[in-house]
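Technical note accompanying the year-one report. For the benefit of new consortium partners, we illustrate the data format agreed upon in the data management plan: each record pairs a sequence with a structure-token string. No post-processing was applied to the example shown here.
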Amino acid sequence: MVLNKIILISLFISVCFGSDTPVNKYSQKEQWKLVWHDEFNYKGLPDSTKWNFDTAGNAYDWGNQESQFYTDKDTSNAYVDGKSLTITALRKNVGKKNYTSARLTSKNKGDWKYGKLEIRAKVPTGRGTWPAIWMLPTDEKFGGWPKSGEIDIMEYVGWNPDYLFGTVHTESFNHTKNTQRGDSIRVQGLDKSFHIFEVEWDQDSFKFEIDNQPYFTYKKEGDTAQEWPFDERFHLLLNLAIGGSWGGEKGIDDELFPHKFVIDYVRVYQKM
């Protein structure tokens, strides 16, 4: 009872007076400790001590035949307004591409082995949009994709509104073989408001949730890296793709641009 009162008082102070560090909503009994976060309570480009702009794939059209050009430190595509981060996709010609957007990673600035990741965000919608919150291996100990794994905390394609997807990829289980492990959940009006996308990851399983509602659990299916390469460091990615093998399956509606993927906060917890 005393602990609950302290948490409530701390929350009240944080709401009324503001704080750069969010109050840990988990009790001591749950043993979760906030280890990394971005509240986006500043203005300008994303914090360079936490985020990288990933543009390497522009040279080879990325891995999913996407239609956007990812820019580097361009506030028209990635901007923090003091309350949230907005990744904006524009109808703009750059090189051979007809659209621009941004892809941010925390690689070598935020890397974790196990934990609970919580991201509050609002997705764009419309044919051709493909926002994602996901994780890739920092060290690629077992080789290139998919050998070292991939964790898709949230994927959404605008031509299939109201459905959210959570997926795990490994060498044995991945979409090129149609053996990936994942599930979806229907959330009406998914693009109309902010939602909390979450994954809890330990040495044996993943649990995917939206707004504290679990919808997919993946349990370790083998002892080799082919089934479970997830005992290594992973980092976070935030991006808004346009078109591609999945996002562009029904084409791209050019009349709907610009598209905005808004991220309220990113918080990472680990067991104490």
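Partners are asked to follow this layout when depositing records. The chain has a mean pLDDT of 91.
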